[in-house]
Write a structure and sequence with these properties.
single chain; four-stranded parallel sheet; about 40% helix; Rossmann fold; TrpB-like_PALP_sf; binds pyridoxal-5'-phosphate; alpha/beta; globular; six-stranded mixed sheet; 2 domains
Length: about 375
């Protein structure tokens, strides 16, 4: 990982850098994909980069348990459980009801396989009370408070993972534009700040997949501001160190990127302007988790033309916007990067031996009846 991050502990749960590959069958010469589907050994997707920093902090604070949140089939809750197992932390997932399907079932079974404690709440409004009870239990068993990770792993600590991701990408490709889904916004905010630090003018087209009441541009702006403040503080400490090293006679070029970032970050405070925040609303459809015909078409095309597996909650909507813009000619002559945020690691073998009856009874109804 980049020197920029030596001030922020990481749990080293990711498999980085992720590759960049060319997508040559969708009718655009310079279309590429950043394969964050492979970001972890057991489980990939965009949450792993955030968990590197979140669990790094949890371990630095010597926490033993981690609480996080999501809907029943949450990718984030599963990613957290998988990474916690890797680092010997106990994962507690506080979940809200969601209509069941094959994906939800498989994610729940995998959480069980990696030893997470699963709690189903009647609704999101029950999260605070359920959290209070879980924190009390952790204090009894661990002798200290658990580390609490917000939904989607999104706060300034988690978003550091995507600052690092932008710097990683800058060494591989320098696109004119990046397409991502926008859920809790950690991916979006982290990339914006990281691209600025990398000195790139790359535009980020963040395609809305959650309701505007849940996340909008003011949230992204606030997250970018928090992230910049955090990085600036970390950089100031490190640039102080760098000066000390230089006084001791070590060459600045032993730390080329840090030198550059000290100049950039400290002297040109990397604030993100409102005009840099692009949120595409037109591909959202009726609501979070609700498919659209455009998303379905995009999923089908990526499968048929590129053998890339996507879904309709996040990645199908992002690629629907991308395909739309390719067709209108808006991207002619541009280098385009689709950032694949969806896990593609196959964990069928780990879930195969798990009997759903071993999950808490509240979850059993998720496994009855036929599903599509
Ligand atoms: C969580 C998730 C996202 C959204 O990322 P945010 O940082 O929350 O905006 C996108 N794609 C997939 C597949 C996800 O699981």
């Amino acid at each position: 990982m980049n020197d920029l991050f030596s001030n922020f502990p990481t749990a080293d749960v990711s498999a980085l850098p992720t590759p960049v590959v060319r997508l040559s069958n969708l009718g655009h010469d310079r279309l590429f994909m950043k394969c964050d589907n492979l970001s972890g050994e057991t489980y990939g997707g965009n949450k792993i980069r955030k968990l590197d920093f979140l669990l790094g902090q949890a371990l630095a604070e010597e926490r033993r348990s981690v609480i996080t949140y999501g809907a029943a089939g949450s990718n984030h809750a599963l990613a957290t459980a998988v990474c916690c197992r890797q680092r010997g932390l106990k994962a507690i997932s506080i979940l809200a009801p969601q209509e069941t399907n094959g994906h939800v079932r498989k994610n729940l079974l995998m959480q069980q396989a990696v030893g997470a404690e699963l709690i189903l709440c009647p609704g999101f409004s029950d999260f605070p009370e359920t959290t209070r009870q879980a924190v009390e239990r952790c204090k009894q068993t661990d002798g200290l408070e658990p580390y609490i990770i917000p939904a989607g792993g999104t706060n300034a600590t988690g978003a550091l993972g995507f600052v690092n991701a932008a710097l990683e990408m800058a060494g591989q490709i320098q696109p004119d534009v990046i397409y991502i889904p926008m859920g809790t916004g950690g991916t979006h905010a982290g990339l914006l700040v990281g691209l600025k630090l990398a000195g790139l003018n790359t535009r980020v087209e963040a395609v809305r997949v959650v309701e505007p009441e849940f996340r909008d541009r003011t949230h992204i702006q606030q997250l970018c501001d928090e992230l910049c403040a955090k990085l600036e503080k970390g950089l100031q400490d490190q640039c102080g160190l760098l000066e000390t090293e230089e006084r001791k006679g070590r060459e600045a070029d032993e730390f080329p990127l840090l030198r550059e970032l000290c100049d950039l970050g400290v002297e040109k405070n990397p604030r993100i302007e409102d005009s840099n925040i692009i949120i595409r609303d037109a591909f959202f459809g009726e609501g979070y988790g609700m498919s659209t015909p455009e998303a379905e078409e995009a999923v089908r095309l990526f499968k048929e033309q590129e053998n890339v597996y996507l879904e309709t909650t996040y990645t199908g909507k992002a690629t629907a916007a991308l395909l739309h813009d390719l067709r209108t000619g808006a991207l002619d002559g541009q280098t385009v990067l689709y950032w694949n945020t969806l896990n593609s690691r196959d964990f069928s073998d780990e879930v195969a031996p798990i009997d759903f009856h071993t999950l808490p009874p509240d979850f059993h109804s998720y496994f009855s009846g036929e599903i599509v």
